[in-house]
Design brief:
homodimer, alpha/beta, Enolase-like, domain 1, TIM Barrel, 3-stranded antiparallel β-sheet, 15 helices
Chain lengths: 429, 429
């Protein structure tokens, strides 16, 4: 058994995947977004797959980690963290060079490294499950539910990208009627019972109007609004006051623990975050100051499925709610999200899902939401199979790219239609 | 594979195991202590073993859980908690009837149930590991160290039990010289490099003298003192003042979060606990008030190996130290402790080990400490095998007992030599 579990080879395949022109406070999604597909091949001939961010800064960390893995066991996922620290360079030096902000909170070298590790951890768990004939959830102690609830992810959007890219038939959504129509189509197609609107795009009063229109169209359904920290404390409290009793939670209205704590002190609307608390190091202060009432886990930047379960345990111990974040990703990550979500007793809210916006995938059979839920797979591993033809085609797109799409940069994408656009200073409103 | 993992049968075997006349603040260890051995037998013909407390209140919960398990999968350890809640009776009703205190902190119905679940969880993991050919640590994500450090556990003790029981050649230890001699023998035999003295037995000044004698005899070695909450805040601060710079940590000097927080505020000596923080529900307040700087995990009452890893994650996130508790237990639990300890990155201190005091066991080959450490087994499962002859003999002792030993009661044991003894009120000093 032990020899069969030894890693023989690791393949890294960056791809570019189509992404619709979805708007957020920093700009607009590019026509294509980079992702990295990780394949871990065992001596027993089994291949496990994982997926993570694909920008250059992630690839730079992924390559030395991939080279260090052969000879190790796929069971040794706890050891990936120490190994990554060892082979991926001095994080202290790297920390000086990373971004100070973004849609996923402060980007530290540690967080970049954890995001890379997560792709490898998932690939190892997939390979282990396939080898043993066990689903990934069983490798995490077993599922406590047979299906996982997901929420519809609503975006202000354009009908098409200004500079090419794939087309779709969703049309533009730039006002309450457009958002309601989008919500209805998502609900009809997939059965979603709750809705999240990506905000921070229009003036707050216009987004308030959109949420009110959703509340009218879907009475009693849980609604969320996420402006990605675009608002001042004052604006956040104004919106919370306008939407009290309507919102299930308000996500990252203002940036940073200080502002979130101020907002929290002034409203009864629960505050959720995937920006203020995105690492274990950020938890203690945020919880002590009651800055957030709901943490959105994300196995990518929390460092994998085991770490996600640990985050859930921390939230449980402190009476803080747990939800799940999602951004542009493929079906490999959605499978991983579903497995880990199935094992966590305190999954208090439906998980976010960006997946309906991703029409391209690298797996042979796409996930299908029914009644807003995904059934938890009991097939070995993640329960997905790589479509090598699709993978090759999306990798070809990456190879052929002139470099403009290989880094996700929503502000740069916005500049194609608005040459004067820069990432807005926060608070924007 | 799935059918092979189905539980066909669960065997519960209560045993009485010899325990020397070790003193603590509540009394003295009985000549024999009850433990419960759990065997989970799979459809594939594999048997996994676990161990937990064996008093009647645990057996009462273990029986319905054992009856509910056949037909379930040994992979489904996360589901044990919900199952136990379901079949083990209404915890709210039970909470009214449980003890208000003890050497392991407040005993709630939840904690009793978790202690029972832990024995079943370990048995399931052992069976799963044996079936898959994987060590238990690999089922927890893999070891991050090849050996686990343990600490010598020193006790004030009598030479023999006043009313029979097994004899040993350790003799009495009731003064500093006796404690130093005991420490030297444990260090020589097993290589322990750190020492913990169970205190709360003699007047504080006499225990201070014992710690000073240890510091003289073993310069630079980490020393711990644990009076099980026997002291007032004033006494705790007095002892901390006397032993500042000598103690690695002071364990549960005073009882309860209020007193521990007061002591903590008045000393730089780190405070450890296995009484003040023994459940996830107790963490938030204790951490917020900085009442403890080190938590002693114990997979029995924290609810198993997965939960122990979650506790470790909570401690890591909050910068609180992690050590491990041990009381009278057999080699099955020591194996489980070693496996989980091997997987936890932030095992900041050598684990406690009561094991050298247990001369009887139910496994075929006892664990051997070398240089104060146990090597982490890479054999399938826990890496121990049940000795069915020894198990039957120790069960026979339980069957033949007149009932006086089936409940661990250190005060009752003390009354055999001191008929007027009652559990001392706290603070005792």
């Amino acid at each position: 058994m032990h020899t069969a579990l030894t890693i023989d080879d690791v393949r890294l395949t960056p791809v570019l995947i189509a992404d619709p022109p979805l708007l957020n406070t920093q700009g607009v999604h590019q026509p294509y977004t980079p992702r990295l597909i990780v394949e871990v091949v065992t001596h027993g001939g089994v291949t496990g797959v994982g997926e993570t961010y694909g920008d250059a800064k992630y690839l730079e960390l992924a390559h030395p980690l991939a080279e260090a893995l052969p000879g190790r066991s796929i069971t040794d996922v706890n050891g990936l963290f120490g190994l990554a620290e060892q082979v991926c360079g001095d994080s202290r030096a790297a920390e000086d060079s990373v971004d100070a902000g973004g849609l996923r909170g402060v980007q530290t070298a540690d967080k970049l490294r954890l995001s890379v590790v997560s792709g490898f951890e998932v690939a190892c768990l997939d390979a282990l499950g396939k080898t043993l004939g066990l689903p990934v959830h069983a490798l995490l102690g077993g599922k406590v539910r047979d299906a996982v609830d997901y929420s519809a992810y609503l975006f202000y959007r354009w009908a098409e990208h200004p500079a090419g890219g794939e087309k779709d038939d969703w049309g533009a959504a730039l006002d309450p009627a457009g958002i309601v129509a989008q919500a209805r189509r998502l609900a009809d197609a997939y059965g979603f019972g709750s809705f999240k609107l990506k905000g921070g795009v229009l003036e707050p009063d216009r987004e308030i109007a959109a949420i009110r229109a959703l509340a009218d169209a879907f009475p009693g359904r849980p609604l969320r609004l996420d402006p990605n920290g675009a608002w001042s404390v004052e604006t956040s409290l104004y919106v919370a006051g306008q939407l009290g009793g309507v919102l299930e939670y308000l996500e990252d209205p203002a940036g940073g623990t200080d502002r979130m704590a101020e907002v929290s002190a002034g409203t009864d609307v629960p505050l959720a975050t995937n920006m203020c608390v995105t690492t274990f190091a950020e938890i203690a202060e945020a919880f002590a100051r009651d800055a957030v009432q709901v943490v959105l886990c994300d196995h990518h930047y929390w460092g994998g499925l085991h770490r996600t379960r640990e985050l859930a345990a921390v939230c449980r111990a402190f009476g803080v709610g747990l939800s799940m974040h999602s951004n542009t990703h493929l079906g490999i990550s959605l499978a991983a999200m579903t497995h880990v979500a199935a094992t966590v007793p305190n999954l208090d809210y439906a998980c976010d899902s960006h997946y309906p916006w991703q029409t391209e995938d690298v797996i042979t059979r796409r996930h299908e939401f029914r009644d807003g839920r995904l059934a938890v797979s009991d097939a070995p591993g993640l329960g997905v199979e790589l479509d090598h033809g699709r993978l090759a085609a999306l990798h070809r797109r990456w190879l052929d790219d002139d470099g403009s799409m290989r880094e996700r940069d929503d502000a740069a994408a916005m500049r194609r239609s608005d040459p004067g656009w820069t990432t807005p200073a926060t608070p924007r409103w």
